[in-house]
Amino acid sequence: MRIPVSIIFTLIFFSCNYADGFYLEDISIPVTEFNEKYKDYEENPFIKVAEQEITTFALDADGGAYTNSRRFLNDGQTPPKAAVRIEEYLNYFTFDYLDPTDGENVSLESEISGCPWNPDHHLIRLGMKGISLPLSQIPNSNFVFLIDISGSMASADKLDLLKKDLKL
Description:
Elements: H1 5-15, H2 64-74, H3 86-91, E1 106-114, E2 122-130, H4 159-166
Antiparallel strand pairs: 1-2
């Protein structure tokens, strides 16, 4: 499934608008009791580049938070705040970045824009793509699935859902 870039940017701006006091909880979707546990990492502070000009970042391909939040919304529930991981929302989509050239291991693309909720700030998008390998060059993989069938999985939205999706 392909999602237009405008929707992706909408997700970024929608989710990052904390400076204006808007949170996902403000949407009128009923909140229910959750059994899942999430670690709340809190919002990262703003760091001025003039004071700290070097940064690091992780290459992460996890997109589970998008699917998890979509599940909550499809069930008419508001996702818990800590379950909304914007970096995973973005990782869920394919951006069709260019392959590396000239023997490089990665390609980089960037874009800078004004910040819609703070005109004194700017936003930068960095896109990175590693070398694409032909399927014939990817080594074989073995997958082992361990399925928890304990009592904590007894509700219809857990083990029964897994059985249905795996067609067991």
